[in-house]
Amino acid sequence: MSHNRPSRADAVRNRRRILEAAREQMGSHGSAAGMDDIAQAAGVAVGTLYRHFPTKADLVSAVIAEHVGEVAEDAEASLARARGGAPAIDELAGFLDRTTEAIAHNQAVKVAARSLGVEGPAEQPDEARASAAVGELIRRGQDAGTIRGSVSVADIYLLMATAPTDQPAAVRQRWLQLVLPGIRTGQ
Amino acid sequence: MSHNRPSRADAVRNRRRILEAAREQMGSHGSAAGMDDIAQAAGVAVGTLYRHFPTKADLVSAVIAEHVGEVAEDAEASLARARGGAPAIDELAGFLDRTTEAIAHNQAVKVAARSLGVEGPAEQPDEARASAAVGELIRRGQDAGTIRGSVSVADIYLLMATAPTDQPAAVRQRWLQLVLPGIRTGQ
Amino acid sequence: MSHNRPSRADAVRNRRRILEAAREQMGSHGSAAGMDDIAQAAGVAVGTLYRHFPTKADLVSAVIAEHVGEVAEDAEASLARARGGAPAIDELAGFLDRTTEAIAHNQAVKVAARSLGVEGPAEQPDEARASAAVGELIRRGQDAGTIRGSVSVADIYLLMATAPTDQPAAVRQRWLQLVLPGIRTGQ
Amino acid sequence: MSHNRPSRADAVRNRRRILEAAREQMGSHGSAAGMDDIAQAAGVAVGTLYRHFPTKADLVSAVIAEHVGEVAEDAEASLARARGGAPAIDELAGFLDRTTEAIAHNQAVKVAARSLGVEGPAEQPDEARASAAVGELIRRGQDAGTIRGSVSVADIYLLMATAPTDQPAAVRQRWLQLVLPGIRTGQ
DNA sequence: CATGAATGAGCGTTCATTCAT
DNA sequence: AATGAATGAACGCTCATTCAT
After folding, report:
1. Nucleotide nearest to A44 (CA to C1')
2. Model pTM above 0.85
3. DSSP string, A35-102
């Protein structure tokens, strides 16, 4: 009796394949991606998709949740570097830059980013992780005098949600330059 | 023959009614507004709608164009005040504020705002007007030393396109505060 | 300007074809008949079907309404004969017999028959006609002493709704014999 | 090997639980009850359900069979009372009344009642029991002169199958009054 | 023998677009 | 030029049944 249940391995793999396919399809068509198309891309029948995600909304939520997880990881890595001595403002800017770029390459992440900070208090563990990391990053920058005292976690989420992710890279970079002065102190 | 064939005037009036209806419907439902619904709201048949706008995309473009006209007017009014002595940076900020609020109350304007500066050089006269006015506003602020030298018309369009217009008023205001330091000089 | 609108003739014919097809399909499969199948049987696309009947329930209602119309006509013809001197009880029995047979050959009529007397007061004109005719038939029989005083229109509807219409003809006839003593006087 | 292979007893118990769940589910939702729902209510997996009943039709039949058993018991109890001196016609009417009421409270019984007398000769032992009891009840009433000579067991089944069981209690009672004269003698 | 994941045809419905009148 | 009926692909979702474990 070393494992929970028999035959669950396949189901788990299918779930993964569905999520992967959903990420891919939603990456290109946003949440307009069709359930049948996602199922086909995943190599399963629609019924299987619906067994794993009873509703399209559920599938979208799951895809979002995954991306939020990745955002959280990036935030934590940034924080780790800041703790290690890197300037917090640089880490925060880098985090914003990377997240923005990620969204630019995957429509689904955008929806994910837009969902941050919207729900009630920390409904998702991953969001809580991201918030904690970003929060400490901000505090560190404020302590070092490089981040404005008025800046909050919600502000960062707001910027992530409004990044011009469907514009060319040059535009995205310019946007970042335009927006950073609102975060950092000086000049 | 006694029966009236629709005059050019009728056609023109129909075009107007359709655009009005489209603005209204898209104002509330975004571009998800149905063609039939728009036609009905305009008091014409779908066929008539399609005669004036062969494709839904065409109708959306037309609605956008109209809003661009309004943006141009606001920009020109702001410029007029600046010419009259008002601080250019204040006028620019006010312009951004008002445009953002307008978008918040009308989904269609958002699409309009996002289309600015995207096309080839000045395809639309109204966009040219807006660009001219905003451009002079910026120059005046730069001359007065209140607007950063790096700021361009495209930057303003970029901010307009990325404003968090589906968020509550408080969030929209906070966003403006967050973004203004990237435009104005000092602190 | 001799007619209301142009091109309406085709639409009317389509409506008829759809109703006919619906009667046929529902005749064999009851209200489980699929919308696509009905459309195909009618020689139109689904969209056309939905233009005429926005909901499956609407189509079913329309089919029912038609059958109720036929029931009303039979009832009125029976009444006419009774007025002309035929024994009311015989006419009532014949009416029940014919209606029952009609149902036996068309599942849809059954649903129709079951809907009689269920709704609020005379929602449908045809039902009102049927009720009036059956009512007078009963009264005449009661006056002639051949129909029990306790019998009401609702009783007739109840019998129509409970006839064993999915049974062979012999069974249906036996059922009628079984049920008639509750209506007629004597023995 | 130490792990238990399911005994015959387990299989029997599963069959019972499935039937119980099916009765319950079909009682409320008729034969529209879903196989998955029934399985879940029974605490088994669908596969198990299908092992016991290879087809939904088989399960429905089994549920029906059970209810036939109950009908048989009621019929036999009625007969016992008639043998003990109670008027056969009253017992027959009571039997009809009770059966009808049972159907009204359980959709599944209806299908059961409708299946009576339809199959080949006495396919089910329970149906044979019911038929024997009802048959003797009728004969006793006929001997006593209270039940019409033409009445047969099939007639009783026919009435049971056609009772207005989805109507309010008052309607069901009226129907019984309407139908009894066809069974009993005298006015 | 039990499990429950997988299948896939089918359902009712929507909507941008076409075209006969 | 206007009408509005017709088209049909597409959508999200259900459910009886099969089959690998």
Report:
1. E6
2. no
3. HHHHHHHHTS-HHHHHHH-SSHHHHHHHHHHHHHHHHHHHHHHHHHHHHTT--HHHHHHHHHHHHHHH
